[in-house]
TrEMBL record:
GO terms for biological process: carbohydrate metabolic process. Gene3D superfamilies: 1.10.1740.10, Glycosidases, Golgi alpha-mannosidase II, Oligo-1,6-glucosidase, Domain 2. Residues 93-532 form the Glycosyl hydrolase family 13 catalytic domain. This is Amylosucrase. It holds the Pfam family Alpha-amylase. GO terms for molecular function: amylosucrase activity. InterPro entries: Amylosucrase (IPR044077), GH (IPR017853), GH13_cat_dom (IPR006047), Glyco_hydro_b (IPR013780), O16G_dom_2 (IPR045857). It comes from the Bacteria.
Length: 620
């Protein structure tokens, strides 16, 4: 035993001499912050020093176990820490089962990803999930096993290695807010193990839950109302922010933090390069608050980042915090305490859809104005759709800023996407418990944009323009854009979930179809809808790669286009993106000459944007 050593030395002692010099450098850079953060969170616990020493020794073992190839990746990334800000970065997100059948099948799809220029693949949850209902894999039973139908750990390691060779980073969800009720910790808690019970927030009666509920929100108000679940074997109530079978972890307990940090590093050592930190906003509970975005949640993430910077510095952390725009910048941390490298810009995503429904880009302009520039090695993540609903509540502040009633306004947007009043959209309202307020909307992008309801070639054309408009926004805003599987082929809603009892109550399954191989087969045929979509999207992707001005960190300014429906986005002095969010043509004045990136036309003085059209212009 080496317990006589100070904590940092216990990390070094676990390493072979060949790794110690590097490790000492990384410790010098990050260990003081780590110690300060952990002392702030857990310093009051008896035995804190011994706990910290054990943690550092465990980190040392995981450091020593990091495979050679990944250590080389760490070194390469250290030389170029802003590598993921390039306009050549392109993400793609898919379910393993829908995209490739299993992990080996995903590996066979690598050529498809390369053809699109993808350099980042987010595979939705593939670790062993709860038996039965499991929220699409977001109820994890074991972080150390792959879901058996999807493959093995060997398949996972083989896939990450193949992707690395292809220049594609694998991103995996790291579901750190909760575990499934059949995870060993939950089983232990139910069996009466006190240490396991302490991994969760368990209350003997309704006294505390009722006090917390006064200020808590609800994520699934219809199918999973309330935030606590009574469990007979616990003889009490356990905190369950999401579904009743997803038990929130108690990060006030240092054992939870230490175990989850080690879990993340074990996965990193299998070759996962980016972790999508699921539900990061919810990690810390405070009575009298909505228990989101608490300062301690940020300290936890900063501590996790310091650990990654010491043990696996090539790894990126991505915040999935679906919160109002003003709460987002905090997820990047500060110079002294960096936090996540990447954060979902869900307000931007939602505002794009709202602009489409309102035929007015006002919400987009407001969100862009509230979006600060980021530190040098940090990036927003932009997207058009994902596996979740489009949550409208993140837009409340912007939607109410000009004196409008934000609830009524966002409810109208949600109704629009549910097809109300003859709208072209084919989607579903999600979890709206109050008909006068908005929660979220579900549906594939193409269906929401009118492709499913289109009867004529003209209507189909407009629907395609609308889907491309939102993709153009995601590709040009200055972010890491992530495409959602199926959108590249304009796949529409999948209604089959209604026949599956374990999915029928959750309309997010509308947007979780299988990869459509028939559409893929005709992707180069411009006489087909998938071919039109794929071809036009590829053109945008290729255009984006050509322009340094479109990199995530390059400057961005929203200009006045002279019409509320038109968004004018300047990316430095040389590049201008014009987007018409309305069904009317609009003429926009131009200063000086511009060349249209799409067709090489020279434009002077003004240009007319057709309904739902978009132009990318560069200085000649
Ligand atoms: C995340 O999402 C996942 O993306 C969902 O698929 C999971 O169901 C959920 O966590 C539980 O693991 O609040 O900030 O409104 O946006 O559930 C994280 C629906 C979240 C999702 C919401 C969400």
């Amino acid at each position: 035993m080496t317990t006589h050593l100070i904590p940092a030395e216990r990390l070094l002692a676990a390493l072979p001499p060949s790794l110690q010099l590097d490790a000492a450098r990384r410790l010098a850079a990050h260990e003081p912050a780590l110690r300060r953060l952990l002392a702030g969170l857990y310093g009051g616990h008896p035995g804190f020093d011994a706990w910290l020493g054990d943690l550092m020794e465990n980190l040392g073992q995981l450091y020593a176990a990091r495979p050679e190839g990944l250590r080389a990746l760490d070194a390469a990334r250290a030389v170029e820490p802003d590598w993921f800000l390039s306009q050549r970065m392109l993400g793609y997100c898919a379910y393993v089962q829908n995209f490739g059948g299993d992990l080996q099948g995903v590996a066979r799809q690598i050529p498809h990803l390369q053809a699109m220029g993808v350099s980042y693949l987010h595979l939705l949850p593939f670790l062993r999930a709860r038996a039965g209902e499991n929220d699409g894999g977001f109820a994890v039973a074991s972080f150390d096993e792959v879901q058996p139908e999807l493959g093995s750990n060997a398949d996972l390691e083989a896939l990450t290695a193949q992707l690395r060779v292809a220049g594609i980073s694998l991103c995996s969800d790291f579901i750190l807010n909760h575990v499934a009720d059949d995870h060993v910790w939950a089983q232990g808690a139910r069996a009466g193990d006190a240490a396991m019970r302490a991994m969760f927030h368990v209350f003997p009666d309704r006294a505390m839950p009722d006090r917390y509920e006064r200020t808590l929100g609800q994520v699934f108000p219809q199918v999973a109302p309330g935030n606590f679940t009574q469990v007979e074997a616990l003889d009490g109530w356990v905190w369950t922010t999401f579904y009743p079978y997803q038990w929130d972890l108690n990060y006030a307990n240092p054992a939870v933090f230490a175990a989850m940090a080690a879990t993340l590093l074990r996965l990193a050592n299998r070759g996962i390069e980016v972790f999508r930190l699921d539900s990061t906003a919810f990690l810390w509970k405070r009575e009298g608050s909505n228990c989101m975005n608490q300062p301690e949640a940020h300290q936890l993430l900063q501590a996790m980042r310091a650990i990654v910077d010491i043990v696996a510095p090539g790894v990126l952390l991505k915040a999935e915090a679906i919160v109002p725009t003003r709460e987002l910048p905090a997820y990047f941390g500060s110079d002294q305490a960096p936090e996540c490298h990447i954060a979902y810009h869900s307000s931007l995503m939602a505002a794009g859809w709202a602009a489409m429904a309102e035929q007015d880009a006002g919400l987009l302009r407001a969100v862009a104005a509230n979006t600060p520039a980021l530190p040098p090695a940090a990036s927003w993540l932009s997207y058009v759709r994902c596996h979740d609903d489009i949550g409208w509540n993140v837009l409340r502040a912007e939607a109410g800023a000009d004196g409008q009633d934000p609830n009524a306004r966002l409810a109208r947007v949600a109704q629009f996407f549910a097809g109300a009043n003859g709208s072209y959209a084919r989607g579903a309202a999600f979890q709206s418990s109050d008909p006068n307020a908005a929660h979220g909307s579900n549906g594939m992008a193409a269906s929401l944009a009118g492709l499913e309801s289109a009867d004529t070639a003209g209507e189909r054309e407009l629907a395609l323009r609308r889907v491309l408009l939102l993709h153009g926004l995601a590709l040009s805003f200055g972010a890491l854009p992530v495409l959602y599987m199926g959108d590249e082929l304009a796949q529409t809603n999948d209604y089959s979930y209604t026949a599956r009892p374990q999915h029928a109550m959750d309309s997010r399954w509308l947007q979780r179809p299988r990869f459509d191989r028939e559409r893929w087969a005709v992707r180069h045929d411009a006489s087909t809808i998938p071919g039109r979509m794929y071809g036009a999207l590829r053109q945008l992707i290729l255009q984006r790669r050509r322009h340094d001005a479109l990199a995530a960190g390059a400057p961005r300014a929203v200009l006045d286009a002279g019409h509320p429906a038109v968004l004018s986005l300047a990316r430095g002095p040389q590049l201008l993106v014009l987007m018409n969010f309305s069904g009317q043509a609009h003429t926009v004045a131009l200063d000086g000459d511009w060349t249209c990136c799409q067709d090489g036309r020279i434009l002077t003085k003004e240009t007319t944007l057709e309904p739902w059209a978009m132009l990318w212009l560069e200085r000649p």
